[in-house]
Amino acid sequence: MARPFQLSDPKRARQLADAIAILAPPTPVKIVHVCGTHEMAITQHGLRRMLPEKVEVLEGPGCPVCVTPTADIDAAVQIAEQDAIVCTFGDMTRVPGTRLTLEQARSKGCDIRVVLSASEAEKLARETGKQVVFFAVGFETTTPMTAAVLLDDPSPNFSVLVSHKKIPEAMGVLLGLPGTNIGGYLAPGHVSTILGLTPYQQHLGRFNIPVVVGGFEPLDILYAIALILRQIRDGKGFAENGYPRAVSDTGNEAAQALIEMVFQSAEVGWRGIGNIPDSGMVLRPEYEQYDARRRFDVCGETGEEKIPGCRCADVLTARAVPADCPLFGTRCTPLTPIGPCMVGTEGACSIWFRYGGRELP
Amino acid sequence: MNIENDRITPLHGAGGEMMGKLLAEHVLPKLKHGTPGRIDLTAMDDGATINLPSSGELVMTTDSHVVKPIFFPGGNIGTLAAAGTLNDLAVMGATPLALSLAVVIEEDFPIADIDRIVASFAETLEGSDAAVVCGDTKVMGRGEVDGIVINTTGIGIADPAIGDAGAQPGDRVLVTGSVGDHGMALLAAREEFQLETELVSDVASIWPMILKVLPLGGIHAMKDPTRGGLAASLNEMARKSKHCLEIEDAAIPLRPEVQGLSDLLGISPLTVANEGKAVLVVSPEVADQVLKTLQAHPLGQDAAIIGTVTDAYPERVILCTEVGGRRFLDMPLGDPVPRIC
């Protein structure tokens, strides 16, 4: 039966795999990507089996749901308990907070809604007399959509609990953490359509490490890995575009302007990593009236993130793969997730579980 | 008094005249079939009799059907109930003999819909000699059941029955056609997705096709990949046989619409239900002949050899991906699409 065209031609894939084998250094190299869609493609197509043994590819902090710190979940729960409708993306409702998940808050009578966009939440605000709060998570791909809603004269009963994050800053910090040993970055294609290459150069340039933007088809990913290994072989380390059919060097300047108009950078917490300067978004003073943290009484809970036995923090910092965790696939499954990496559908543990991602021995 | 006579009322399930009339006018005339025993459906006795054959094994299966929507592209709950039961018998290698038909209907259900459902049920039985020999009708109040629930039990004769545990190293794995059609068609048909596709369910009785391959022999294991899809069936076959099934991803027949929808929704077509397909594990000597025989039947045109049984990873299924990678294909946690069969 004819299949739709996919960038998964086995002959070309073999050629790329051969090139990768030739380019691979004699010593082990760890390549880290920061995108659930990359992990999905790598696992689903069994690409790790096509790489030389010494070339390892791991997902770092690539799942926005997973890196959202407990303190932010707690804030969302507290706001919901103050009789506001809290809207967020599906996976967020199951991430553990200090006391409750949003799903548990809902079963205690809070009004929690799953939406697909900030504009859907704002539309709900127009239809109801109640306060509606959009719990905004996501990287640079979703931030412009939140900004667009705030720029379009939103309903006065609408506000945003901002938890947007910036990926290049986190990629920089990860390099400085003990035990990460990252040899190169496979940069996310989606985020890069917005950002272009400049932010990578800006935040990672001084580390002299290859950063190659890659697409999401099997051939895209193999190609990007080949480019990373070529930089390593040549002793180079710069931001390179391996996905030119979608990403331009300067990115989407209109979307960047939207972000710039509404948000400014701030130090925020990342689950598994801790606080990173300038790695998150807060509203500019002109838009503070839509800040849910100001509109509601949000008192800081401790945000305890240690789940006994759970290695999410190591998975999020590319220091472990899901199968290294003793809970993976035993007590922790997508039906009974313990750590956030099993909750988020873009989390490495969830993907490995659903697509049989364990390395074939 | 205004009696609505085009809708189901509690009296239709109360065992009296109203029920008798419903059955006599809307159900029994449609179920015209031979009788496997001395006392059959028309006798309306407390039970039916079935004459025992002189050899072989009696195979019995049962299924409750709770599909949503009740009428879907390619069929309805009646098609599904008949095909589901016949197919369970077929993949046991059993000639279908007799079926029961028990329905639980929600009050106010349109009688015209009962007509369509029973007609589809009868039509689906046509390719076999199986007869409905007994049945039951119950009515529940509004909101107590969602529309209609059908339970069917089937009895067949196999000589001998084919289980799902008999895979042996060297055997070939076959699938009788494109996978994921039923689950994806139902998903697309649900209002919340607002999707327009040409996709129809594959729901059908596969007995006429299986009947053609049984005489070839060499069939070591057989399953119909319903809930949990192909992935669940392959894993069960690997676990029960204690061998490894190595599957070529690119060889699995897949409709472009199913592939597209699965990419869109992030649901693997290998984990959603089929209602007119079978997975066969056959000895290598007969594999090509089985394949040709399947392909010669209208329901098996897209049949394909998709893999081999090995000892590489006992009790596991390996997927060799199109691009040249390899990964485990695990047992899905459940079917990602609820209420499909």
Task: Tell me what you see in this structure.
The complex is a heterodimer of chains A (361) and B (341). Chain A is 37% helix and 17% strand. With 361 residues, chain A is an alpha/beta fold. Chain A folds into three domains: 10-64 and 169-241, Rossmann fold (3-Layer(aba) Sandwich), CATH 3.40.50; 67-167 and 252-295, HypD, alpha/beta domain 2 (Rossmann fold, 3-Layer(aba) Sandwich); 312-354, no CATH class. In chain A, α7 (143-151) packs across α12 (253-262). Chain A is globular. Chain B is of the alpha+beta class and 341 residues long. Chain B has two domains: 10-158, PurM-like, N-terminal domain (60s Ribosomal Protein L30, Chain: A, 2-Layer Sandwich); 172-328, Phosphoribosyl-aminoimidazole Synthetase, Chain A, domain 2, CATH 3.90.650.10. In chain B, 27% of the residues lie in helices and 23% in strands. Chain B has eight helices and 13 strands. Chain B has helices at 17-27, 77-90, 111-125, 181-189, 207-213, 229-241, 256-265, 284-295, and strands at residues 57-65, 71-72, 75-76, 95-106, 131-140, 148-158, 172-175, 219-223, 244-248, 279-282, 304-310, 317-320, 326-328. In chain B, β2 and β3 (75-76) form a beta hairpin. In chain B, α2 (77-90) runs parallel beside α3 (111-125). The model of chain B has no long low-confidence stretch (mean pLDDT 92).
List the helices and strands and how they pair.
The complex is a heterodimer of chains A (361) and B (341).
Chain A: H1 10-23, E1 29-33, H2 36-44, E2 55-59, H3 64-67, H4 70-81, E3 85-88, H5 102-107, E4 112-114, H6 118-127, E5 132-138, H7 143-151, E6 158-164, H8 167-176, E7 184-188, H9 189-195, H10 198-204, E8 211-214, H11 218-233, E9 239-241, H12 253-262, E10 263-270, E11 274-283, H13 292-295, H14 312-316, H15 340-343, H16 348-354
Parallel strand pairs in A: 1-2, 1-7, 3-4, 3-5, 5-6, 7-8, 8-9
Antiparallel strand pairs in A: 10-11
Helix pairs in contact in A: 1-11, 7-12, 8-10
Chain B: H1 17-27, E1 57-65, E2 71-72, E3 75-76, H2 77-90, E4 95-106, H3 111-125, E5 131-140, E6 148-158, E7 172-175, H4 181-189, H5 207-213, E8 219-223, H6 229-241, E9 244-248, H7 256-265, E10 279-282, H8 284-295, E11 304-310, E12 317-320, E13 326-328
